[in-house]
Amino acid sequence: MKIAPFATEQYFSLYEFNTPHLLSVSDCQMISIGELLDMAGRSEKELLALGLGYTESQGNPDLRAAVAKSYKKVTGEDVVVLTSPVEGIYLAMQAMLEPEDEVIVLTPAYDALINVAEHISRNVRRWQVVPTEDGWELDLEALDRLVTSNTKMIVVNFPHNPTGLLPDLDQFRAIIQIAQRSGSWLLCDEMYRGLEHGQKPQLPSAADLYDRAIVLAGLSKTHGLPGLRAGWLIVTDDEARASIINWKHYTTICPAAPSEYLALVALEAGAELAERNKGIIRGNLRMAESFFAEWRGFFTWRPPQAGSVALVGLAVESANTYCHDLAQSAGVLLLPASFMGYDDRHVRFGFGRHSFPSALKHYQALLKKNVAANS
Ligand SMILES: Cc1ncc(COP(=O)(O)O)c(C=O)c1O
Predict the structure, then answer these.
(1) What is the pTM assigned to this prediction?
(2) What is the CATH number of the domain that holds 146?
(3) Cβ proximity of 243 and 270 under 8 Å
(4) Domain final residue pick, 239, 269, 299
(5) Domain limit, last residue, from 233, 248, 269
(6) 341 neighbors 107 (Cβ within 8 angstroms)
(7) What's the gap in Å between 349 CA and the centre of ligand 1?
(8) How far is the CA of 86 from the centre of ligand 1 (A)?
(9) Is 39 contained in some domain?
């Protein structure tokens, strides 16, 4: 069966590795294996001695126990280690959904959250994030209206890619109550949890609040280690977990041994990695604030409450055309929001990298040049 194009990844395949000024990536600053081992006080000997045999399908028990420690009610038994975070979306939806099931997806969204749901179910409804003057809001009444007795799954992602929205605890509990009332699963993508860089406190994980939650998390964003391809699902329901692991036998069978080892090391250095990346985001956001204030007529800036990305309005005919032109003619990479189920007049900015200031300066120089040429 065909599936919709994964527009964001197709776009990044075109430009990410040949465009010098990356302004829209969602990951945070990566480090080398050597730096990671140093940070955790580990020697490379252990890594070099690691066997390259098959690993346990559900994941290494030590890694699962270490993952469980970042939740309150979760044990290692509830953790399914993935071969990449994105795999978790596919596994969870394949295992839990049938074509006639109703699914509600918070949109805009990372493509897989919408496209895999629509690939499996004929009844996907979009729950739209609402723009305000200076931010983004959840419309809980709209969610309440969308949910029916046939709703099988509600899909959310907090902190949210691409808006940077982070709900209050009361709002999060209200979403869970709505899910509870209809008996639906809550697939909660927590890939950016730990990147609360502003006033708002971290939310508890859905895994600690709701027994029908399926939580996706990993090391690509908060820890800045996307090349590890390390992620996990938290599934406290035994039957759901067994079904997910069965699907995993058809995709990747078991996690990569070196990734599992390094993921365990990364969790030991987890707090330091997250602090470091929040510091980078805060610095880049300060610079972005003055940039957007200077170019107010061209951009509509709604600052993110958490996470590494923001959704920014753009006064152009088509953000899609603009972004392709910008990448090809000026080597500056922005991401059109239409790929993530939003309109064609917004783009995503990403603030997690050390290279953001120089990329933004390059873009600013280009904007000034264009203004001078048109005046
Ligand atoms: C919300 C969200 N979920 C899942 C993923 C998948 O993570 P990974 O690319 O590390 O597999 C991403 C990646 O951008 C994401 O933004």
Answers:
(1) 0.98
(2) 3.40.640.10
(3) no
(4) 269
(5) 269
(6) yes
(7) 15
(8) 6
(9) no
The answer to whether the CB of 163 is under 6 A from ligand 1 is no
DSSP sequence for 115-174 = HHHHHH-SEEEEEE-EE-SSSEE--HHHHHHH--TTEEEEEEESSPTTT-----HHHHHH
Residues 162 and 278 placed together within one structural domain of the fold: no
- CATH of residue 340's domain is 3.90.1150.10
Residue nearest to atom 15 of ligand 1 (CA): 110
The number of the ligand 1 atom at minimal distance from the alpha carbon of 309 is: 16
Residue 203 CA, ligand 1 centroid: distance in Å: 19
Helix axes 356-374, 270-294, angle to 10 degrees: 10
Residues 13 and 101 in one domain: no
One-letter identity of residue 110: Y
Residue among 30, 83, 86, 160 whose CB has most ligand 1 atoms within 8 A, to mutate: 86
User: For the chain, how many structural domains are there in total?
Assistant: 2
Q: The tokens of 122 are what?
A: 């004929």
Q: What is the pLDDT along the chain (375 residues), one digit of tens a residue?
A: 899 999 999 999 999 999 999 999 999 999 999 999 999 999 999 999 999 999 999 999 999 999 999 999 999 999 999 999 999 999 999 999 999 999 999 999 999 999 999 999 999 999 999 999 999 999 999 999 999 999 999 999 999 999 999 999 999 999 999 999 999 999 999 999 999 999 999 999 999 999 999 999 999 999 999 999 999 999 999 999 999 999 999 999 999 999 999 999 999 999 999 999 999 999 999 999 999 999 999 999 999 999 999 999 999 999 999 999 999 999 999 999 999 999 999 999 999 999 999 999 999 999 999 989 988
